[in-house]
Amino acid sequence: MAGTATNYTATQLTNAGIFGAFWVGLATPGAGSRISLFTDGTPDATANPGAKHLGHTTEGWEMTAKADTEDQSVDEVVAPVDTIITNLSVALAANMAQTQDISGVLQHLISGFGTYSTAAGYEQITLGTPSSLVYTACALIFPTKADATKFMIYNLYRSKNDSGIANQIKRKGLGNNPVSFRGYAVTSRAAVDQIGNAWKQI
Length: 202
Prior knowledge:
The protein is built from no helices and 10 strands. The chain is mostly beta strands and 202 residues long. Strands 1, 2, 3, 4, 7, 8, 9 and 10 form an 8-stranded antiparallel sheet that branches. Strand 7 and strand 8 (151-161) form a beta hairpin.
């Protein structure tokens, strides 16, 4: 007989000194592909000409992916005999700190109820109901602990901010705006790859 290998390794931790950059306006990668990065971990500008970085956060980013299930029961057995997935929720969330940046941040938070415009001497967001929702491919990109020249990526193919604008203006503390970019299915893709991917360079 032989023992079984353990998996204790400090090189796989996400801890102090590691922070991510969040991008919207990316190109959606094709089936079996991943977004194109430059060597510094930013989206490749040729492949992603519309990429926009959303700037500082107050406490970093959180990626969540959760499947809701519904148990299947039969009369003859006291415990469920099966379960099915009824909903899959995937999101990237943070508290954005650059809340006075209308063109660089706030205009990307208003899908479905706001329209950005600018002219001589001002820029603005008018609030109402545009004719259609605007979705964006987005990604959180951060360096790995084992090698700062390699990156880990959470990429949503089709997303929008579900948190709207909740912009704090206060004398004490740092004002922020909570955001949650929720992933929506791209139904033309294979069922196993409709919402996004999480991958790491090695």
